[in-house]
Amino acid sequence: MQAITAKRVLIVVMAVFSLSSMVGCTRILGIEKSSAARNGDYYPTCLVKADQALDEARMAGKDKECPDEFNALKDTVDRAYKVHLGCNTEGACKMANDAIGRIRALCPAKAETKPAPEAPLEPVPAAEPTPETAKYCITLNILFDIDKAVIRDEYRDEVGRVGTFMQKFPATTAVIEGHTDDVGADEHNMVLSRKRAESVVNYLVDNFGIDRSRLSAKGYGKTRPIADNRTEEGRQKNRRIEAIIDCAVDIKGLKPLPDKLCLNLKVQFDTDKADIKPAFNDEIARVADFMKENPTVTALVEGHTDNVGTADYNMKLSQRRAESVVDYLVEKFGIERSRLSAKGYGETRRIAYNTTPEGRAQNRRVNAILDCVIKK
To answer: How far apart are CA 167 and CA 169, in angstroms?
Structure first.
């Protein structure tokens, strides 16, 4: 009888010892059966919940989406089990609960990034060439009396260069720009420059019969200098009138020569390419023929891009494309390289918004600025 009683006591002691080994060396509120990965043994609920959180994250594909973070948290849960078996169940649960919160926050959904709205377009410069047109640019060397806007008689021939051209090509329009040096107040110079531009418009209407609807006047004051205002010679160059004539004319045989002729070349390039296709031979030939007819003319080829790609890359791409047009003029048409130069502007001089395919196409352009040297 005593032997049976002793045997029962031993069984109870062994059961208590076994349970103690499963739940650790400290008191806990609950235990659960673990997954097959933990051999189905009983462990504190906090540890089992941590394994379940890992399983849910794995089923959601987070072990593939952010594997480094997932594996780091899995290691944390494994360490929590070891801490428990080392008789620190309270510390193990603290680790496990912390891991559960981080597991549930794994791989946060990335907020959709919207491109910043483009800044408003600045007014397109009057001399910016547009498709199908040329810009016939004349700088009028007109001296005005101090603080006056009346055109002197001796400058009739100078203004006549504009009037004669517009009479010859009745479909043309013109922007007359007034500019000043930096002497005087900014506001006064702005008003004065516009009055002088309006004076030229009135002169063209009254003396050449140009319809006023074909003309507009703009005053820029001192904001667009072309020379150094620290010298008298520079200030005189800045006190000027410019006529920018928009004309859809064939430049072949164009007489008289303008000071500058600005053309938009309709040359399309393949993506990330700068080589010129034979289909655009005739387009570039317009520039070559004009330069052959007028051997004193030099040309600056400008390259421009849209905003697809980085700004640095677009700057280099626009330069390569401008240089490609220069090489084409030299190799295909025999224009002396010394008369040509190339300048890439990347995406810095957009003439349209880049938010539409049409706008981006307008910005991907090549301009030829022909400097027609006229000796007076």
So the answer is: 5
Q: Is the pTM of this model over 0.85?
A: no
In tens, the pLDDT along 134-166 reads: 888 888 888 888 788 889 889 988 899 899 889
Residue type, 130: T
CA distance 258 to 371: 8
CB of 322 closer than 8 Å to CB of 269: no
Structure tokens at 2: 């005593």
Pick the closest to residue 328 from 273, 376, 283 (CA basis).
283
The position carrying tokens 């190799």 is 331
Give one word for 40, left, alpha or beta, with left for phi > 0 and alpha for psi -120 to 50: left
Burial of 280 (0-12, 13-18, 19+ CB in 10 A): middle
Find out whether the peptide bond into 129 is cis, omega within 30 degrees of 0.
no
Q: Which residues contact 191 (CB under 8 A, 6 or more apart)?
A: 219
As a whole number of angstroms, the distance between CA 218 and CA 198 comes to: 8
Q: Are the C-beta atoms of 360 and 304 separated by less than 8 Å?
A: no
